[in-house]
Write a structure and sequence with these properties.
The protein is built from 7 helices and no strands. Helix 2 packs antiparallel against helix 4 and helix 5 packs antiparallel against helix 6. It is mainly α and about 140 residues long. The protein has one domain. The two termini are about 20 Å apart. Helix content is about 80%, strand content about 0%.
């Protein structure tokens, strides 16, 4: 816990608007991807079918959970509410998105997109939500 407090202290003293804009852009992108996966579940299904899912129910469960996590987690990242938790929960999904390109059909655009999201997410896992967020405002009220 002391490591998180140290990281928060450092992040709050080094908060800049471009970093907050990057966090908001990541959140908006995740919301977009969540909506995209809900509307085009067959696209995500086609990506996951190459991984030889055993049952159809596991495939459908994965498709809906990924869309839901991206949508809700993206909203939390946009507003800076529990950013580390939100991205930590989605981290296996991001790692899986990069891995799908190696075990399934290699699509360079998807690989670059997934790699950038993974990298930026790891940065915000360490950095936190910053000074211009709901987390910071709630911390200052207490």
């Amino acid at each position: 816990m002391s490591l998180i407090k140290k990281l928060n202290k450092w992040a709050n003293s080094h908060t800049y608007y471009p970093v907050d804009i990057l966090r908001i852009a990541l959140g908006v992108f995740l919301v977009y991807k969540g909506i995209f996966f809900f509307q085009n579940s067959s696209y995500l299904e086609s990506l996951l079918i190459d991984l030889n899912f055993d049952t159809f129910s596991a495939l459908m469960w994965s498709v809906h959970v990924i869309g839901l996590f991206h949508f809700v987690g993206g909203l939390m990242v946009v507003f800076g509410l529990l950013t580390r938790l939100s991205l930590g929960v989605q981290l296996p999904i991001f790692i899986g998105a990069v891995a799908i390109n190696f075990f399934g059909v290699l699509n360079t655009q998807n690989l670059i997109e997934a790699s950038i999201v993974l990298l930026v997410s790891v940065v915000f896992l360490l950095y936190g939500s910053g000074k211009h967020s709901i987390d910071y405002d709630l911390k200052m009220e207490a």
